[in-house]
Amino acid sequence: MFGLELTTTDVWTLIAIVLLLVALAFLAMAETALNRISKVKAQAMAAATGSRSSRALARLASQPERFLNALLVTVTICQTAQAFLTSILAARLFGTVGVIVAFILNVIVFFVLAEAVPKTYAVLHPERAALFSTPITAALVRFPPLQLISRALIGLTNVILPGKGLKQGPFVSEQELLGIVEAAAEDDVIEREERELIESIIEFGDTVAREVMVPRPDMVLIPHDASVSGALDIAIEHGFSRLPVMGAGEDEVVGLGHAKDLMRAERDGRGDEPAASVARPVRFVPENKPLSRLMREMQAEKFHMTIVLDEYGDIAGMVTLEDCLEELVGEIVDEFDREDREVVHLPDGTFLVDGGMSIGDLNDLLEIELPDEDWDTIAGFVFSTLGHVPVKGEAVESNGWRFAADKLDGHRIRSVRVSVVPGRHAADDGRSVDRARGDDAAAGAPDDAAATG
After folding, report:
1. Residue-wise over 246-268: b if at least 16 C-beta within 10 A, else e?
2. pLDDT (mean) for 135-140
3. Which residue in 32, 262, 317, 379 could disulfide with 213, CB within 3.0 to 4.6 Å?
4. What is the pTM (predicted TM-score) of this model?
């Protein structure tokens, strides 16, 4: 039915097809293996073995866009040539029907032998596959015609899609990086503490001064009319080495009183002098200043405390170098600190949460997604959502959780009781928030709040 007589040309065409399949399998293995070897790992392998292959691998890993471009261009050429030759050979030997059958068989053979098998091997043995493929890959990278073709194609791509992305190589987003860290922790590649530190460093760049500052009501201040002795008593009583010195105005800070300066003045017999006379200059920053920049400035300019101002120039709070470090490594408590736990897990299963706890920390604790665009703390969330100063027991519900004002200090929510809403699960997406009121406050509940048991 079909002519099966093979000519010399057919034999050489068949040999070329097989060789192209072998080349494609090698290139697939090389691409997968090299992508799984990080720059740091390649440098460690080069330092450990010192072989030519490992040194070449380190050079390739330092500039991944070079080998990726070379491999992708070579793969494209080989795939096109292999499919073209297969179609010609099938058409000559079997006709139109043969081309269709050859196309189907070629897809199966190509997927199994030139994709699945080599890439699976590279995933299982990345170091061995990377070292094996490095010499040929390095030769491809240095091959002048391939360099010329690669640059021309990249230039054409940049004309179609203007930008620097293809010139600078691949990128990893912040969320992808966090996912990699999470996967590494689940596979026991890194410890839990290492994962938390890496996540803190990644998130540190998005943190602003307002999120970590000591708010204005919690600041310990030296009054403007305090003497050196009086200021020293305040510093000793609260255990602080630096305190802001207030001016005559209610929201005016004229300097920082250092305990060592106050003690030196006291020892020199100047205890009756105004504390402002020994105060050092104070720095002011806006509340939306990135914490990473602020910490760098503290290191470079050698100051440990700054006053945070809101958009109207009023005092919003203060930030210390310790606050910045705690955002990275967690709470730092010394022998003089009075440690107040932000979260207390009560026997009835509820949580008693400090009103100043950040929404982000509470979201991590409860694995929920409370909105945090318009407030930073759980107290701010309850207060702003209700729209008025709450009374004890008044609450809001979100994400299947109930957040009730537990302790108030004037207009300020000091602590919030967090509990699961009876008969509900954490299915709320956080965009709609229901208002509720506890039994102890139901008698005086306003019309727009619902009583809950």
Report:
1. beeeeeebbbbbbbebbeebbee
2. 87
3. 317
4. 0.55
Is-contact 245 231, C-beta < 8 A? yes
- What is the helix (H) or strand (E) element at residue 27, kind and residue range? helix 8-35
The torsion angles phi and psi of 420, rounded to 5 degrees, stand at -75, 135
- Digit-coded pLDDT (tens) for 181-234: 777 777 777 887 888 888 888 878 788 898 889 888 889 999 989 999 999 999
Q: Is residue 141 within 8 Å of 70, Cβ to Cβ?
A: yes
- Tell me which H or E stretch contains 407: strand 401-409
SS3 172: coil
* Summary mean pLDDT of the chain: 81
What lies within 8 Å, CB to CB, of 260 at 6+ separation is 241
What CATH class has 209-329?
alpha beta
Given a cut of 90, whether residue 289 has pLDDT beyond it is: yes
Identity of the residue numbered 92: R
Asked whether 355 and 379 are in contact (CB, 8 A), the reply is: yes
